[in-house]
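Marked as duplicate of an earlier ticket. Keeping the data here for the record.
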Amino acid sequence: MSSSQDLSFHQLLPLTIFQQLGQLLQQMAQELGNEALIVTEEALVSIPTRLEATDKFTLVVSQQFSALLVAERRLEAGARRHREDLTLKESIILNSVNSEFDTEAYVTLHERNSELLNAKLTFEPEAIAEFLQHLNGCLEDNSLARATLARYSQVIQPNNATLQGKFTLMLLSVLAPSSHQNDEQESIYPFVSVCQPVEEALHQQIAHERLLNQVTTQIRQSLELPIIISNVVERVREFLQVDRLVVYQFEQQESVIGEQGAGSREQGIFDSAFRIPHSAFSTQGCVIYEARASKSIDSVLNYREENCFVPASGCWEKYRQGFTLAIADVDKAYVLSSCLLAFLQKIQVRAKLIAPIVFQQQLWGLLIAHQCYEPRSWQENEKNLLRRIAEQLALAIYQEELMRSLKLEKQTLEQRVIERTQALHDALLAAQAASRAKSEFLATMSHELRTPLTSVIGMSSTLLRWPLGEMSQRQRQFLQTIHDSGEHLLALINDILELTQFESGKAVLNLSEFALAQLAEASLRSLSDRATRQAVNIMLDLKISPDYRLFADPQRVSQILWNLLSNAIKFTPEGGEATLRIWSENDFAVIQVEDTGIGIAEEHLPLIFEKFQQLDSPYQRRSDGTGLGLALTKQLVELHQGRIEVESTLGTGSIFTVWLPNNREQGAGSREQGKEN
């Protein structure tokens, strides 16, 4: 018996009403059994198609009952019209709810009511067959799905009157309250018709917000990603009351950010490491965690699907953009995907809800809720909750990746510091070894040279005093040159020997008290002949009393004075002056030598106390010497725990100032330092 009654319509419907009509058609398909084909836009996610992303439809095809519900979204105009249809009481209640509760309950309810669809419901066999043909043409490279659609297009007939009548009653139960308002009932039960749905929505939203706050708090308090995921998945499974909740992670090749978690298999052990997707996306992966309602439900931990996922399918891009997939009954939804249906039946999945976990615009994994024994119509608030939980897990993954990057950078920096420190240590040891070898070589050579040189000086001095027979003036000049050159060479060798003693740490001070003024006068007298030969006027400016006593090594202090004064005389032109000043400042004796010589360029000042440094070119050198005088002077001053400074202006002159401590404690410290070295 067939029915010719046509209850088809084409009108604007709220999204909630459209979803209820889709659920009614799925209920009819359940009653028809295995002979019925049910197809929705969500069921085609895993199949490559050319359908528009905005298409929403539910199609039921069988020999006894067929129906097509299809819609397109209409937001702005429909929203205004639907807001105008709100009664005054509904508006007042919604506004009061919004002002009293600062939550998303009002926003969610308002958006759900304001979103309208341009919906069409038809039972006409021709229209249904035409849609099947259109759907068949949109499938890409899926011969099995096309054959299935073609086979069902041949069985479409006018609907059975009994089944049509039953669906009509179900349809009226959904449409009648929204199209015919019962004024009397509304006046009698205004609280039940308006307040109760709002209150229920608020309670649900508050519970969702409480769960999300708990998840957010745990993410902030913990940096262990496995612990975060295990606790979150268990809480969400209990809240949604699903049979199984799993985390499916896609395989990646880089950036391990987690280690295997502790605990038993029932508690969700992480048998594979967490990885951050930096490489190309792969559809291969496995279940890395699960939470089950009871042990009677089969475990899918570490389970992987290797055959049914199509790499080129558009579903992965939809997931990456945040698409949430809700399947009420996989037996009906995946009729066109026999491979995926067999896979889901094997792991006991009857209904599923999937939310993507997207990290840095990469699809990291999926958060999947399973209903194992019976179909389940997923509510919008459940979809939104799972989607927001997946977003929170993505934040936890990002947090873990930041910590991993910081740890890696810290380890890399520490390793570089260790390597650099070791390199510097090795370089220092090599430099010290080279310096010791050089000092030992110079000391050996100096000793070997000084022995014959002493004989040359002694013999030349003897011949000058007591010549063996008559000598001409020219012979005496030659002999004097030999003597003077030997003296000069001996002085250089002695400087080198003393320098090697300083560098090897063998120099010591013989400390005692002495009159500094007398030592200064003696130094000037010893250099008076040299100053006279070079026409340089040397002066002494004593600002201390004659009995001022300095506790230091008198021989070393004399050497300091002699080096500074001879250096001043050497680099002061004829007619110039060199002044030695001495004064006392706190616990220091201050020695200053000022000249009106050639001066030192500012860029050369840092080199003035270096060994073997003479600031004029060795090919244009006008003064003799090896450049060791000032280097030795600095070593002697520092051996006394003093300091030396220089001020100079090119073409004007130079001022060398020495501070020597004048107390027994510092002097004893200098002596002990020399002994330790």
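See parent ticket for discussion. The chain is about 50% helix and 15% strand.
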